Amino acid sequence: MYQTDPPRPAKETLPTMYDLPSEDPEEPGLPDEFHDFQPQLLRETFCPPSYSRDQIFVGADLNLYYDVRHPQWYKRPDWFGVVGVSRFYEQRDLRLSYVMWQEGVSPFIVVELLSPTTESEDLGQTLRDIDQPPSKWEVYERILRIPYYVVFSRYTNELRIFELKGLNYQQVRLDTERFWLPELGLGLGVWSGSYQEVNGRWLRWYDELGNWIPTGSEQAQQAQDQLQQTQRQLQQAEQEAQFERQEKELAQQQAARLAERLRQLGIDPKEV
Length: 272
Fold this sequence. Notes:
6 helices, alpha+beta, 30% helix, 6-stranded mixed beta sheet, elongated
Protein backbone atom coordinates (compact mmCIF):
# COMPACT_ATOMS: atom_id res chain seq x y z
CA MET A 1 0.00 0.00 0.00
CA TYR A 2 1.42 3.36 -1.02
CA GLN A 3 1.78 6.13 1.55
CA THR A 4 0.71 9.59 0.37
CA ASP A 5 2.60 12.68 1.36
CA PRO A 6 0.82 15.18 3.66
CA PRO A 7 -0.66 18.25 1.93
CA ARG A 8 1.76 21.14 1.53
CA PRO A 9 1.06 24.44 3.37
CA ALA A 10 -0.86 27.11 1.47
CA LYS A 11 2.18 29.38 1.44
CA GLU A 12 4.00 26.76 -0.62
CA THR A 13 1.21 26.09 -3.13
CA LEU A 14 -0.61 29.41 -3.58
CA PRO A 15 0.82 32.56 -5.20
CA THR A 16 2.50 34.98 -2.80
CA MET A 17 3.14 38.71 -3.03
CA TYR A 18 6.31 37.94 -5.00
CA ASP A 19 4.07 36.43 -7.67
CA LEU A 20 1.40 39.14 -7.34
CA PRO A 21 3.10 42.55 -7.10
CA SER A 22 1.39 45.91 -7.43
CA GLU A 23 3.65 47.45 -10.03
CA ASP A 24 2.38 47.17 -13.58
CA PRO A 25 3.94 49.57 -16.08
CA GLU A 26 1.10 48.94 -18.51
CA GLU A 27 -1.66 49.78 -16.05
CA PRO A 28 -3.23 53.19 -16.78
CA GLY A 29 -4.57 55.73 -14.32
CA LEU A 30 -1.55 56.90 -12.35
CA PRO A 31 -2.60 58.91 -9.26
CA ASP A 32 -2.73 62.69 -9.32
CA GLU A 33 -1.02 64.86 -6.69
CA PHE A 34 -3.95 64.75 -4.28
CA HIS A 35 -4.05 60.95 -4.49
CA ASP A 36 -0.36 61.07 -3.67
CA PHE A 37 -0.38 63.61 -0.83
CA GLN A 38 -3.56 62.60 1.00
CA PRO A 39 -2.51 58.97 1.63
CA GLN A 40 0.87 60.26 2.82
CA LEU A 41 -0.83 62.43 5.43
CA LEU A 42 -2.98 59.52 6.57
CA ARG A 43 0.10 57.31 6.80
CA GLU A 44 2.09 59.88 8.79
CA THR A 45 -0.64 60.40 11.36
CA PHE A 46 -1.89 56.80 11.75
CA CYS A 47 -0.46 55.62 15.07
CA PRO A 48 -2.99 53.61 17.14
CA PRO A 49 -1.69 53.78 20.74
CA SER A 50 -2.66 50.18 21.56
CA TYR A 51 -0.37 48.77 18.88
CA SER A 52 3.40 48.97 18.52
CA ARG A 53 4.68 50.37 15.25
CA ASP A 54 5.92 46.94 14.17
CA GLN A 55 2.35 45.63 14.43
CA ILE A 56 0.85 48.24 12.10
CA PHE A 57 0.84 48.12 8.32
CA VAL A 58 -0.38 50.87 6.01
CA GLY A 59 -0.91 50.46 2.29
CA ALA A 60 -1.50 53.18 -0.28
CA ASP A 61 -2.30 52.46 -3.92
CA LEU A 62 -1.18 48.87 -3.25
CA ASN A 63 -2.81 45.82 -4.80
CA LEU A 64 -5.01 43.93 -2.34
CA TYR A 65 -5.54 40.32 -3.49
CA TYR A 66 -8.63 38.91 -1.80
CA ASP A 67 -9.93 35.73 -3.47
CA VAL A 68 -7.90 32.52 -3.46
CA ARG A 69 -10.24 31.07 -6.09
CA HIS A 70 -9.35 33.95 -8.39
CA PRO A 71 -5.77 34.78 -7.41
CA GLN A 72 -5.38 37.43 -10.11
CA TRP A 73 -8.34 39.48 -8.86
CA TYR A 74 -7.44 42.46 -6.73
CA LYS A 75 -8.59 45.86 -5.56
CA ARG A 76 -6.31 48.84 -5.15
CA PRO A 77 -7.48 51.01 -2.23
CA ASP A 78 -6.27 54.57 -2.09
CA TRP A 79 -5.32 53.90 1.55
CA PHE A 80 -5.85 51.11 4.06
CA GLY A 81 -4.66 50.35 7.57
CA VAL A 82 -4.09 46.93 9.14
CA VAL A 83 -3.42 46.36 12.84
CA GLY A 84 -2.14 43.22 14.50
CA VAL A 85 0.00 42.22 11.51
CA SER A 86 3.74 42.51 11.07
CA ARG A 87 5.01 45.74 9.58
CA PHE A 88 7.11 43.62 7.21
CA TYR A 89 6.19 40.59 5.14
CA GLU A 90 7.45 37.52 7.00
CA GLN A 91 9.30 39.90 9.35
CA ARG A 92 11.84 40.99 6.72
CA ASP A 93 10.56 42.33 3.38
CA LEU A 94 8.73 45.46 2.31
CA ARG A 95 5.46 44.41 0.70
CA LEU A 96 4.97 44.35 -3.04
CA SER A 97 1.23 43.80 -2.50
CA TYR A 98 -1.13 42.59 0.23
CA VAL A 99 -2.23 38.98 -0.34
CA MET A 100 -5.05 37.97 1.99
CA TRP A 101 -4.47 34.19 1.90
CA GLN A 102 -0.86 34.83 2.92
CA GLU A 103 -1.47 37.54 5.51
CA GLY A 104 -4.59 36.19 7.19
CA VAL A 105 -5.56 39.62 8.62
CA SER A 106 -8.01 41.91 6.82
CA PRO A 107 -7.59 45.68 6.82
CA PHE A 108 -9.38 47.39 9.69
CA ILE A 109 -10.17 50.52 7.71
CA VAL A 110 -10.12 51.49 4.03
CA VAL A 111 -10.22 55.00 2.58
CA GLU A 112 -11.21 55.77 -0.99
CA LEU A 113 -10.78 59.25 -2.46
CA LEU A 114 -13.69 59.90 -4.77
CA SER A 115 -13.27 61.18 -8.28
CA PRO A 116 -15.83 61.47 -11.10
CA THR A 117 -14.47 58.35 -12.80
CA THR A 118 -14.37 56.15 -9.67
CA GLU A 119 -17.33 57.34 -7.59
CA SER A 120 -19.80 54.73 -8.84
CA GLU A 121 -17.32 51.92 -8.29
CA ASP A 122 -16.32 53.17 -4.83
CA LEU A 123 -19.94 53.49 -3.69
CA GLY A 124 -21.06 50.13 -5.04
CA GLN A 125 -23.32 51.61 -7.69
CA THR A 126 -21.93 49.63 -10.61
CA LEU A 127 -23.45 46.41 -11.87
CA ARG A 128 -21.23 43.42 -12.62
CA ASP A 129 -21.78 40.29 -14.66
CA ILE A 130 -21.54 37.06 -12.71
CA ASP A 131 -18.18 36.18 -14.27
CA GLN A 132 -16.66 39.60 -13.53
CA PRO A 133 -14.80 40.59 -10.36
CA PRO A 134 -17.04 42.15 -7.66
CA SER A 135 -16.95 45.89 -6.97
CA LYS A 136 -14.81 47.44 -4.28
CA TRP A 137 -17.89 47.86 -2.11
CA GLU A 138 -18.72 44.16 -2.37
CA VAL A 139 -15.16 43.10 -1.63
CA TYR A 140 -14.83 45.35 1.41
CA GLU A 141 -18.31 44.56 2.77
CA ARG A 142 -18.97 40.91 1.92
CA ILE A 143 -15.60 39.25 1.33
CA LEU A 144 -13.04 41.00 3.53
CA ARG A 145 -15.58 42.25 6.11
CA ILE A 146 -13.61 45.43 6.72
CA PRO A 147 -15.11 47.16 9.81
CA TYR A 148 -14.86 50.73 8.49
CA TYR A 149 -15.07 52.05 4.96
CA VAL A 150 -14.40 55.77 4.43
CA VAL A 151 -14.97 57.81 1.30
CA PHE A 152 -13.88 61.42 0.92
CA SER A 153 -14.42 63.85 -1.93
CA ARG A 154 -11.94 66.67 -2.40
CA TYR A 155 -14.42 68.32 -4.77
CA THR A 156 -17.18 68.69 -2.16
CA ASN A 157 -15.07 68.10 1.00
CA GLU A 158 -17.71 65.55 2.02
CA LEU A 159 -16.68 62.84 4.43
CA ARG A 160 -18.76 59.66 4.54
CA ILE A 161 -18.07 56.78 6.88
CA PHE A 162 -19.67 53.36 6.61
CA GLU A 163 -19.53 50.94 9.54
CA LEU A 164 -20.08 47.22 9.16
CA LYS A 165 -23.23 46.31 11.06
CA GLY A 166 -24.13 42.66 10.76
CA LEU A 167 -23.86 41.75 7.09
CA ASN A 168 -23.96 45.23 5.59
CA TYR A 169 -22.40 48.66 5.72
CA GLN A 170 -24.46 51.38 7.35
CA GLN A 171 -23.59 55.03 6.90
CA VAL A 172 -22.61 56.75 10.14
CA ARG A 173 -24.45 59.96 10.91
CA LEU A 174 -21.82 62.65 11.46
CA ASP A 175 -22.73 65.73 13.47
CA THR A 176 -19.23 67.11 12.92
CA GLU A 177 -16.44 66.37 10.48
CA ARG A 178 -14.88 64.02 13.00
CA PHE A 179 -15.41 60.36 13.87
CA TRP A 180 -13.92 58.47 16.81
CA LEU A 181 -12.85 54.83 16.39
CA PRO A 182 -12.64 53.36 19.91
CA GLU A 183 -11.04 50.12 18.72
CA LEU A 184 -8.04 52.10 17.47
CA GLY A 185 -7.96 54.82 20.11
CA LEU A 186 -7.89 57.31 17.24
CA GLY A 187 -10.29 59.60 15.45
CA LEU A 188 -10.49 60.54 11.79
CA GLY A 189 -11.57 63.98 10.69
CA VAL A 190 -11.34 66.75 8.11
CA TRP A 191 -8.58 69.25 8.85
CA SER A 192 -8.10 72.65 7.22
CA GLY A 193 -4.46 73.49 6.80
CA SER A 194 -1.31 73.33 4.72
CA TYR A 195 0.28 70.01 3.85
CA GLN A 196 3.14 69.71 1.38
CA GLU A 197 2.79 73.50 1.01
CA VAL A 198 -0.76 73.07 -0.28
CA ASN A 199 -3.62 74.72 1.59
CA GLY A 200 -6.80 72.71 1.61
CA ARG A 201 -9.08 70.30 3.42
CA TRP A 202 -7.41 67.04 4.33
CA LEU A 203 -8.25 63.81 6.11
CA ARG A 204 -6.05 63.16 9.10
CA TRP A 205 -6.04 61.36 12.45
CA TYR A 206 -6.47 62.90 15.91
CA ASP A 207 -5.92 61.66 19.47
CA GLU A 208 -8.26 61.18 22.43
CA LEU A 209 -7.78 64.83 23.46
CA GLY A 210 -8.92 65.99 20.03
CA ASN A 211 -5.43 67.07 18.98
CA TRP A 212 -4.37 66.38 15.41
CA ILE A 213 -1.57 63.82 15.30
CA PRO A 214 1.52 65.73 14.09
CA THR A 215 3.39 64.74 10.96
CA GLY A 216 7.13 64.20 10.96
CA SER A 217 7.81 67.74 9.72
CA GLU A 218 5.40 69.16 12.32
CA GLN A 219 7.16 67.22 15.06
CA ALA A 220 10.49 68.57 13.85
CA GLN A 221 9.07 72.11 13.82
CA GLN A 222 7.64 71.63 17.32
CA ALA A 223 11.03 70.37 18.54
CA GLN A 224 12.74 73.35 16.93
CA ASP A 225 10.21 75.76 18.50
CA GLN A 226 10.73 74.16 21.91
CA LEU A 227 14.51 74.40 21.51
CA GLN A 228 14.27 78.05 20.57
CA GLN A 229 11.95 78.70 23.53
CA THR A 230 14.37 76.93 25.87
CA GLN A 231 17.26 78.95 24.47
CA ARG A 232 15.29 82.18 24.99
CA GLN A 233 14.52 81.14 28.58
CA LEU A 234 18.19 80.35 29.22
CA GLN A 235 19.21 83.66 27.67
CA GLN A 236 16.67 85.50 29.83
CA ALA A 237 17.84 83.65 32.94
CA GLU A 238 21.46 84.52 32.09
CA GLN A 239 20.53 88.16 31.61
CA GLU A 240 18.70 88.20 34.92
CA ALA A 241 21.66 86.52 36.64
CA GLN A 242 24.02 89.05 35.05
CA PHE A 243 21.79 91.90 36.22
CA GLU A 244 21.79 90.45 39.74
CA ARG A 245 25.60 90.21 39.66
CA GLN A 246 25.83 93.81 38.51
CA GLU A 247 23.45 94.90 41.27
CA LYS A 248 25.50 92.99 43.83
CA GLU A 249 28.75 94.51 42.56
CA LEU A 250 27.20 98.00 42.66
CA ALA A 251 26.01 97.46 46.23
CA GLN A 252 29.46 96.24 47.23
CA GLN A 253 31.07 99.30 45.64
CA GLN A 254 28.65 101.62 47.47
CA ALA A 255 29.36 99.85 50.76
CA ALA A 256 33.11 100.20 50.20
CA ARG A 257 32.78 103.94 49.48
CA LEU A 258 30.71 104.45 52.62
CA ALA A 259 33.23 102.52 54.72
CA GLU A 260 36.08 104.64 53.33
CA ARG A 261 34.12 107.83 54.11
CA LEU A 262 33.60 106.68 57.70
CA ARG A 263 37.31 105.96 58.12
CA GLN A 264 38.12 109.42 56.80
CA LEU A 265 35.86 110.80 59.52
CA GLY A 266 37.71 108.74 62.13
CA ILE A 267 34.96 106.20 62.57
CA ASP A 268 35.66 102.50 62.44
CA PRO A 269 33.06 101.00 60.06
CA LYS A 270 33.07 97.79 62.13
CA GLU A 271 31.76 99.69 65.13
CA VAL A 272 28.88 101.26 63.29
